[in-house]
Every structure is written in structure tokens, then in C-alpha cells.
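Ex. 9. Protein: Sister chromatid cohesion protein DCC1.
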Amino acid sequence: MQSQEVSQSSQPEIYQRSLDDVHSTIAHAKLEERNLTDLTQALYFPEATTDDSSNLKLLELNPHLLEHITEGNTLLFKGGLNENVVLCTKSKTFDLKEAEVSNSICLVPCLKFAAETSNSPLKTKSTGANNSADSSLEEDTEDHLNRSDITLERRDVLKIFQEYFEVREIQPRFRKLHDLLQMTRYSGPENEYCIERKLLFTRQQLLDTTQCSEEEFAEGLKIVRAIEIDQYMRVLEIEYEFRVIGLLLGVIDENSWALDAVDREESIAALCEIIPEGILRAVFAHYTHPSANNAGKFTYIEEKVCRIMARSILKPGLKFYIEDFLTTWQETLPEGMKINEKYLRGIGVIDRDSKMPCVRTLLETSLPTSQQERFQVLFQAKQSWTLDEIEPYVECFTTPTVTVTSILNRFARSMNQDGQRVYLSKH
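Predicted C-alpha cells for Sister chromatid cohesion protein DCC1:
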């Protein structure tokens, strides 16, 4: 105890402001104390050696974030070692960017504002216009010294901020979700021995890792066509998925069903000895929706069926003559479905301007995540693009305030070609 007392006594004494200091400061500032409230708050700035608030950060809140917090919800920060951190609510994702402020911002706990600093109405007194500045200053100082209702309270500044985090709503970042699931693609129970079990992820693990909100994550699982198998989320090998959907479509011909009168249970029962029932039900659910014309029956979604068939034809590194590809593509579909070039959005491109007009695969999920690098790849694959063609490869970078067109204006140049606007490389 004795050594502790010696140590405390050896510390330098911290200067405490007094009411005399307050009166003097107000007088030098040429303010009238009679117009001030009853309470004076003296600010004490933290010592550099005793600052224990280094973990405090200042975050900008837009109306959505403010409402989310006031309702008692949680904000989640997500980001790996090589990722920019994002902020997620239940339904939206925000990018975080550190911004500097020109004026220092002080964080002062328990600081009282004007309405809390007075127990009586503000006191006002007119001052004669003929009085000189010196005589007014003397009267004010005398008034200060005579007032007995003024109190002085200490307020400690917890931290001084020179920067803050601003938020910007962005598209959910599903690339990591796609890449993680691609490591353990499911190709049938007979091939499960090849899967590294350490690379399997549960739904919750993927949600914690993927930079998106919970609602967006549920939509992302649909986009990548994820299936829960033995408590782990998986995606199907593209060839295996093509096989499953081909078998399901074959059941239509075997039973001579109309495209809008497909029976789900009969389809699954016909194939459950070949394909696991859980896989059949998941694939059927993705490629169909309830029929509008036949209660209890289902209709295959033309666009989704066309896209999986196109993926089965387009192989990485191969080019196809346009007419040959379109003919083959149409032949893979059940009777009643028709191909459409717009169904190739994000999976393949048709290049009619090259020396050899062709169709080639170009998966959006295989392109760089950097905007500049992505545009380099796009213009290497094809010299000129229409807005509809290039949009699926750019829309992942859009925000509520940044459109596809504004991004194209930054990285590409436009011109009219045969009455149609096209985009070309700037370099």
C-alpha cells in the first residue's frame, strides 16, 4: 500500500478548470453570460498515453441501417483476409470505405445539450448602444462574478475522430459462394469417395462466409442451384445435372404428357432407383413451377431448361458455327420448347463480327472480380457488344446509384453500328 501511495503522489497533477476560468474565457470571447444557460461543461481531452478507445470507430448510418438498429436487429461485418469488409443487415449488403473529415469529431459521453443545461428560462438583457466595448466587457465580467446559479461539470472526451466509415449499398457478392461449392461438386453417390470432407460446408458456415445478407444468401443458393446433401450444401457437376434433367424430361415422352401437365410424384418414382430421391426433388423444384392450367401438375421452365442444354453443348475453349449450334441446341429440347439467344445470358456469346462467326462459352462466374480486368477479358472475347449482351457480365458491379451504363461509360466507348449502339474497348 505504501508503494502505491508513493506512485500516485509521483504522478503529475491534472489541472482542473474552475468557475473563474469559465468567467475569464467568456469575457475574452466577448459573450454575455446573462444569455447563457445555468450549466457550464468543461471538456477534458484524453492523454495520448492513456487512450483506451482505439477500438472505437465512427460509422455512417443511412435510413435503412438506422431503422435496422433501432428495431433491435444486428449488423454483421463480413470479410476474409484478402477481402474488403462489407456490412450486412437482414436484407441488404453495404460496402465500407474509410473517409476523412476536415473538422475533428469529438465523442463525449453524457454531454448535455441546451435544453438540459438550464433550470430556468434564458436570461436576456438589452445593452445600451452608446456603451463602449470596454465598459460592456466590465459589466459582463461583473455580472459573471455576481451570478451564483452557475455550475461547472467535467466532461471527458472519449475519442477524437479524424475519419469515419461511409456505407454504399452494393450487390451481394456470390462469387465466394460459387467458388466454395465448386470444390465439392456432386456427381453421384458412386463418386463420393473422391470428395475431401474437410471442404464441405453447412448452410450456416456458407452464410457466415459469403458477403451478403441472409435474405440475399437464400436467393444466392437458388442462383447457384445449391442442394443440401447429408447436411452439407452442394452443387451438381454440370454433366450430372444434365443427365438428371434429361432423364426427367424423358419421363414426359414416356407418358405422353403435355408440357404444362407434368406429374411430379410419378416423375420421381420412375427414376428414384437410378438417381437419389433428394437430388430428383431438388432438380425438379428448380426447373419447374406449378402449372397455371392443370391443378396439381407442373410446367418445366423453358429458359432454365434451354440454359442447361446450352451448357451441355458449349465446352470451354471450343467454338461452334452459329447455325450448327442453334440447330443442335434446338434438337436437345423436348417438343414444344424453343431456343432463344437471350437464354445464353451470362453463359455464352454469339460473335457475328469475327472472321469466323461463332458461338463460344463465356461464364460470368469464371471472369475476374476486378472491373478493369473483367473488361479486358470481355473485349478479348468479343470486339463489340450490345447493351443486352454485355449487361449480365457487368450488373454484379451495379448499385442503386451506379448503373450498367455508367460503368460502361467508364471502361468502354460507344458508337452507332447499323443503327444500333455498341460498346468497344477504349484502348
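Check your answer against this statement. Residues 174-302 form one domain.
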